[in-house]
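Ticket 4471: requesting a sanity check on a complex prediction with protoporphyrin IX containing FE. Repro inputs:
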Amino acid sequence: MSAPQRSRPIHVPRTPPPAGAPPSPEIFAALGEDGIRRMVEDHYVLLEGSSVRALFPDDMAAAARKSATFFVQVLGGPPLYSQAYGPPRMRQRHLPFEIDAAARDAWLACWDEVLADAPARYGFPAGHLPAYRDFLDSFSAWMVNAE
Ligand code: HEM
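Returned structure tokens:
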């Protein structure tokens, strides 16, 4: 029996997983779970009006809540994502969605807008913004799976 056909080829570019240190846990210490949830919700509000909207499910609020559990975890808080959904395996979990360079740029642009006033809005420690931007930059390159 032949393998099931995919509806589209999945390209696997060679971008490696992020090698740098994870973001500083001081970010969770400063924002708390509530601040991180608000920040991720704001990111999803911007995604809702972006060119990648169609990749996401209808219920963006629910998608934001799920995603926020990962960001709480990766920014130094309790492992809410792993407890609820298992190992992150983010690249694998993104494979069903066709993410090309333009989609990555749109996703990052929404983060840029959120981070522009993150110190004032969420109490994000300004000194940790450059490393957090680097984290998003390298992590999102790893998510790209289409040309
Ligand atoms: C490169 C551009 C990216 C695009 C276009 C994108 C798009 C998506 C889409 C379409 C989903 C599914 C939403 C759902 O069904 O609920 C998703 C889920 C998610 N994304 Fe991304 N994503 C990107 C990068 C990233 C990065 C870099 C991270 C983390 C740093 C991330 C974290 C998550 C998380 C935590 C989820 C929920 C996973 C799950 O369903 O278990 N995404 N993303």
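Notes from triage: The CA atoms of residues 44 and 124 lie 18 Å apart. Leaving this open until the requester confirms.
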